[in-house]
Amino acid sequence: MQEKTLQAIADSRDALTELTRELIRFPTVNPPGEAYTPCAEFIGERLKTSGFAIEYIRGEGTPGDNDTFPRTNVVARREGKRNGPCVHFNSHIDVVEAGDGWTVDPFDGVVRDGRIYGRGACDMKGGLAASIIAVETFLMHNSDYTGAIEISGTVDEESGGFGGVAHLASKGYFSKPRVDHVIIPEPLNKDRVCLGHRGVWWAEIETKGEIAHGSMPFLGDCAVRHMGALLHEFEQTLFPALDRKQTRMPVVPEGARRSTMNINSIHGGQTDDYTGLPSPNVPDRCKLTIDRRFLLEEAITDVKDEVIDILNGLKETRPNFDYEIRDIMEVMPLMTEKDTPVASAVASGIREIFDREPDYVISPGTYDQKHIARLGHLYDCVAYGPGILDLAHRPDEWIGIDDMVQSAQVMALALGQLLSEG
C-alpha cells in the first residue's frame, strides 16, 4: 500500500499543479482579508467529495472581522474505521499584498520551468495543496485506517493568526482528545523538520511634545526630535547588544541565531491624507512600532526591560522627554523535541524519500504553532512543507512542482506512521 500511495502521488503531479494554481487565483490578501470565504468554501467542497465532514467557523469579534471581510475558516474531518489518534494538517490561506516588481500576474498561477509563480505559491498555498493531495491519495489506498484525519484552511496568519488558529484553538479545535498530532506545511524546505520559532514582542512607543507654530518651534516641543533621540540610543546601545546574543536553537538563516529588532513603522506630525500643503505645526506626538525577536535563552521581562530602561534613561537626562509604551503582542520562543511522535514521523518520511537525515531547524519568525501550544496546550506539532522561506513575500514568489510532489509523499508517509502507531 505504501508503494502504491507514493506512486499515486507521483502520478498526481498535474493534479497537484492545478490545485495549487486554483488556490493562488483566490486573492486572499491580508489586510484587509479578501476572498477568504470563497477560498475556504472551495477547499471544503473539494474535501467533501472525499468523505470529509466540513465546518466553516467565522472568527467573530477578532481583529479585522466584519461582514465585508469575514474571517472564514474551514475545518474538514474524516473518521477512520476504529478509534485512534487524529492527525491534523493546518495551512493558512491568507497572503500578503503582491507589491511591485512582478514579471508575471501574481494571482494567475503561471507555470514555467517546473515552477508555479504567484503570491502565496510558496507561503503557503503550495503546502496546502501538497497536504490535500497527500491525504486524498492516502485514503485511496488506505481506506481501513484507524483514527481520524483533519485538514484546515485558516486565516490571518500573516497578521498574527488571531482570527484563524487562535480563534479555533480557543474553542478546542487544537486540543486533545480531538487532535493529537499537527503538521503545518509552512515553506521550510522539503528535507527539513521545523521544530518551532523564536519569540516575538511587538510594542508601540509614543513620544510626547507640545504643539506650536512651525515658524516658532522654540515655543513648542517636537515629539519627532524626542523620537530621534530614542532611535539614536537604540543604534548606540541596544542594537550592538542584540548582535552579541546567540542561541543554541537551530534557527535558519544563520543571521537569525541572534536577537533582532526591526523598526516596523514610525509616524509623527502631519498625516499623509491631507490635500494641498501641510500646516506649519510642531508635532506633539510621534509613534514608533517595534518588532523584537528573541531567543529561548531570554526572558520576556528582560527583553522589555532593555527598551524601557533606555526610555527611562532619556526621561532622566533629556529635558521634557516623556513617553508611553503599549504592548501589541508577545509570543514565547517554542521548540518541539526531535523525538516527539510527529517530528519522528516526518523525519522518517524524509529519510524514506530523500535517503538522508533531515535537518532540524527553527523558524526566524513565528507562525501558527504558537497558538496551538499556548491556547490548545498541544505540543506535538511541527512545520513541514515544500518551498523556500526566502522567497516568501517577495516579487515573483514561486514553488517547485517536484518539491511539492516529494513533500506530499513525505506527508503521506508521516500520516500512515502516526495512525498506525496510534
UniProtKB/TrEMBL annotation:
The keyword Zinc applies. Gene3D superfamilies: 3.30.70.360, Zn peptidases. It comes from Oricola cellulosilytica. GO terms for molecular function: hydrolase activity; metal ion binding. Residues 196-313 form the Peptidase M20 dimerisation domain. Its cofactor is Zn(2+); Co(2+). This is Acetylornithine deacetylase/succinyl-diaminopimelate desuccinylase family protein. Keywords: Cobalt, Hydrolase, Metal-binding, Zinc. Belongs to the peptidase M20A family. Pfam families: M20_dimer, Peptidase_M20. The keyword Lipid biosynthesis does not apply.
